Predict the structure.
Amino acid sequence: MSGHSKWANIKRKKGKNDALRANITTKISREITIAARMGGADPTGNMRLKLALQKAKENNVPKDNIQRAIQKGIGALEGQSYEEITYEGYGPAGVALTIDVLTDNRNRAAAEIRHVFTKHGGNMGETGCVAWMFKNKGIFVVSKEEADEEELMMLVLDAGADDMQTGDEEYEITTPPEAFDAVEKTLEENNIPVLVAKITMVPDNTIALSSSDAQKLENILDALDELDDVQDVYHNGELPEEDED
């Protein structure tokens, strides 16, 4: 259960990512609205809303925006109708990409994403072409300064975690989505702070990229991030060590 963290291998430079997402508040607010519409305004029984609110907190989304988004979701305020779509394709070196979209115009979203793939040398694929390469997982990242490896491993495995990997500076814990709450509660009860806590798509295998291909992938990811309709992008590219945080 030790080794170099897969999460660290595929994560992007946070500062660069944040700088590109000037419209992050709009995107997160849209996600909150959809989550509230689907599961109600109480995050206790609505995992999707809980995670959207956590993302809002991490990105300093104003409370007024959050409340307005929830009110739109439950119908208390008028809001646009968004459609959820997932697009799939391939980037440099055969890297698999899956793109989650919330849009009020399916044709516009498809055209914009296709343009990004074409411009940056990728290929947009059919539905299902790469989805099988990813699994929905809960991810927790804990600094090695905050916990003893063996004690932490025992705690999270007892709570239902699948695995724990040890990196140079962090522990990465993976869980089935249904065990996310139990693991989160265990960490809180033992006063173990987390750097990352989210449910995401984790690739079964990664593709090691050269510096050149890593830059090409970054270019595609940056271009996709700039699209208003794109909520999240997942890939299985393994960035060279110097490209990691």
The two ends are 22 Å apart (CA to CA). The first strand starts at residue 83 and ends at 90. Strands lie at 83-90, 96-103, 123-124, 134-143, 163-166, 170-175, 196-203, 207-208, 230-235, 237-238.
